[in-house]
Amino acid sequence: MRSYLLSHAVTVIGVLASFVMLARIKGARRTSQSTIAWMLGFVFVPFATIPLFLLLGSRKFPARAKGPAAKSERWTQGEMDRAPKTSRVLADAGVAPPRVGQSFELLADGERAFDALIELLRGAKKSIDLTMFILGRDDTGRAVIDALAERAAGGVRVRVILDAVGCARTFSIARDAIEPKGEVRAFMPLGHSPIRGRTNLRSHRKLAVIDREIVFGGGMNLADEYMGRGPRKNGEPRWRDVSAIVRGSIAYDAEAMFESDWAFAGGKASGAARPREEEIGARGDEVAQLVPSGPDFATDTVYDLFWSVIGEARTRVAIVTPYYVPDDALQHALVLAARRGVRAELVVPSVSNHAVADVARRDLIRELVASGVIVHYYPHGMVHAKAMIVDDAFAYVGSPNFDMRSLQLNYEDAIALYSPRAIADVRAFVDALIAESTREGPRVRERTTIEQLARFLSPEL
User: Fold this and answer.
1) Where are the alpha helices (DSSP H) in 98-170?
2) Predicted local distance difference test score (pLDDT) of residue 8
3) What pLDDT is stored for residue 10 in this prediction?
4) E strand or H helix at 106, and its extent?
5) Pair 324, 453 in one domain
6) Beta bridge partners of 107
7) Coil, strand or helix: which one is 414?
8) Both 115 and 16 in a single domain?
9) In this structure, are residues 312 and 304 in contact, taking their beta carbons and an 8 Å threshold?
10) How far apart are CA 388 and CA 78, in angstroms?
11) Are residues 46 and 175 in the same domain?
12) Per DSSP, what are the bridge partners of residue 306?
């Protein structure tokens, strides 16, 4: 009898707990594949799935992950009136408005980007705030660490956030070199409390703010594959990637994002006040906007922006990404753009460094090609760049890939551009990649079970 009652109690508890988890998963904005996977787990193996969901399942922590620093910035009526139409989708999401009077410089290769970054770091006079997903244990990583340590020893305030997974091999090296004059923090350590976040929610951000005036951002990590001086020691070509330097008031938006991450990583706030807009002054003629995204926002800001601009496209939309694994809605937005006569183009590496992502993209690309989207395969190595152009109205470079891990799970940052000269620079980079690419992709069989399994797992890729 006791055994029966215990068994009955366990069953009831399991059923009730599953219903609670089902309600939570239903209320979350997730891909259909992810939702179905969790729901099947709750139904058939609840006592294994529920703890796993509590550790990994939640993907939004706007109230807890950032605290007071996550308060939304309300756009003024003037900012709303001046803002490009496509950017207004972000007005209530806590994203700062587009900033006018910015200076923009595109860095379209790894050697140029490396030289520019080292020059900026060594020239810093007041402060360096750097957040990075990967810091290499190689010549490039060591050069960056040395530059940061040198400036910290010279009295510059140096603060560094390194993702605990991406920088696992170099975190202690960087910390030992930069501290005690500077500060180095790990973002989301694997041993953290689940109340403070989820292990699978990584900081994929790649950004540096120098002297509260200059932003260095884009898709490049700080390692030999992405950037460096001279040829790589192994003789292989560097990955094709892109970064940018933006000077102007956007630096204060980047600093605010960093301060929020810094507080989450256990650091103390700098206490520096943001100057009034009229005190900042114009640095150029460009209109640029920093668009952070991740678990610290209630909505998926970069996802919403991409979906909006693709829907607004009239003549051309071109996307460069190393991994193409969007959800059904973004896929359909690109398909519809092609069907309504927009020249829709996608640039991907012929073979990326993630085999599962390559398998997962196959069926999606078949649908794109059948709908009239032009797919360009880059055959000369890895393309790691993340960029997009839409007509003459929008461009972006930044850290988000065109996949659901970047758009719905990771902490990311994008630099959105709304002025002709900056958009033209990004267009020239995209067109140069297209000129070196081919429309002949890897030969694969028709739809396979492996493809469907990879697509099913795509939200976690």
Assistant:
1) 110-123, 139-153
2) 42
3) 47
4) strand 99-107
5) yes
6) 243
7) strand
8) no
9) no
10) 27
11) no
12) none
Tokens 């469907």 belong to 452
pLDDT at 24: 53
Residue 63 lies in a domain: no
The 3-state DSSP class for residue 325 equals strand
Give pLDDT, residue 76: 85
Residues 148 and 258 in one domain: yes
Tell me, what's the pLDDT at 28? Answer: 54
CA distance linking residue 310 with residue 339, whole number of Å: 12
- Sequence letter at residue 291: V
Which amino acid, one-letter code, is at 114?
A: F
* 317 in the same domain as 263: no
Question: What's the confidence (pLDDT) of residue 441?
Answer: 77
Q: Are 360 and 447 in contact (CB under 8 A)?
A: no
> Can you give the pLDDT at residue 326?
95
Q: In the structure encoding, which two tokens stand for residue 48, read together? A: 């294994």
* Domain extent for 22: 2-54
The domain total for the chain is 3
Reference 359, options 450, 441, 459; nearest CA is: 450
Q: Along the chain (461 residues), what's the average pLDDT of each consecutive run of 10 residues?
A: 52 50 52 58 58 57 48 75 88 92 97 98 98 97 98 98 96 96 93 58 95 97 95 88 97 95 91 68 90 92 96 97 95 97 98 92 94 97 97 97 93 97 98 96 64 56 50
* Residues forming a β-bridge with 167: none
Tokens representing 459 are: 């939200």
Residues 307 and 451 in one domain: yes
Amino acid at 209: V
How many alpha carbons lie under 13 Å from residue 85 in its C-beta half-sphere?
7
275 half-sphere exposure, CB direction, 13 A CA radius: 11
Spatial CA neighbour of 93 closest among 284, 303, 321 = 303
Give 169's strand partners: none
- Which pTM value belongs to this model? 0.85
Residue type, 224: D
Distance CA 183, CA 270 (A): 12
Distance CA 406, CA 401 (A): 6
